[in-house]
Amino acid sequence: MNNNNIRSEWIPSGYIKNGGHLNLKRCKDILLGVAIGDALGVPVEFKSREEISRQPVTDMIGYGTHNKPAGTFSDDSSLTFCLAEAIASGFSLEGTARNFINWRYDNYWTADNEVFDIGMTTQRAIDRMVKGTPPQHAGDFEEESNGNGSLMRILPLLVYIKDKPTVTRYDLIKQVSSMTHGHARSVIACFYYLEFALGLLDGEEKFVVYNRLQKDVAEYLRSINMSRDETSLFDRLLIDRIDMIPENQIRSSGYVLHTLEASIWCLLNTDNYKDAVLKAVNLGQDTDTTGAVTGGLAGLLYDHDSIPQQWLSQLARKDDIEDLAARMFKAVKS
């Protein structure tokens, strides 16, 4: 990438950013939206779409893949909460890194005092941070290291960057993604996801956001001379109508682009939180992450009050999560 000659005041054409309508409720929408989607997917993680189709997920269930009680969230939510804690404490990459390390080695922000799932790329990055590598350089930067491990945890950053210029938003997203996943593809995926979330935070209708981002994200990536080889990989989002693509052409592996596409597809093809996250989980494979990434956007779109109460009551550490949302909001509201 070449960031030369970029105007710091760059704003996407046709979009006047108003800073987002952030309140405590919206912070709960983010954290609970992610966690519920994650917990729904944990029991069926790694199962194929065909296998799940024989007994679709219709409710919050327990045990299964990881032998955990219903409502148990995974690394997706734990690392999301680690980032939220860093924001609540006055955001810094170093603080976020400490939280990641404490999660991995001291069970910080786990559902039941156990880390039971971690991606190899994230593990390598955390070990580099333990040894003193600066957080923004700790991740893998190779093309083959484009799993969904930064996308799954990035959503709380929205509350910190929402009032900042696009250039600053992109740079902060790049830094936070690069703590584990530094390749341009992962950064673009996180940028697109948070720009979509910002539109929802601002109260835009989901298809309005989708259509606007086809222009705005594409324009911004051109402005920083992003390789067309990279941007073309996002054509199903930036050029096509992804909501019109048949389900059998939507993939749900741990590859960051698959997760992003699947999540936007689920969001655009449903009209409530419950259906969005169930559609995501029933796609199979990386079910907890597809559920978490979809759930974060669906939480913003429909708010956490639309989440089935039974699911919320089953969620591990629900009171702690709501307290974290309150502390995160307090830290950024000024």
UniProtKB/TrEMBL annotation:
InterPro entries: ADP-ribosylglycohydrolase (IPR050792), Ribosyl_crysJ1 (IPR005502), Ribosyl_crysJ1_sf (IPR036705). Pfam families: ADP_ribosyl_GH (PF03747). The keyword Hydrolase applies. PANTHER family: ADP-RIBOSYLGLYCOHYDROLASE (PTHR16222), ADP-RIBOSYLHYDROLASE ARH3 (PTHR16222:SF24). The keyword Magnesium does not apply. It comes from Mucilaginibacter pocheonensis. This is ADP-ribosylglycohydrolase. Keywords: Hydrolase. Belongs to the ADP-ribosylglycohydrolase family. Transmembrane segments: none annotated.
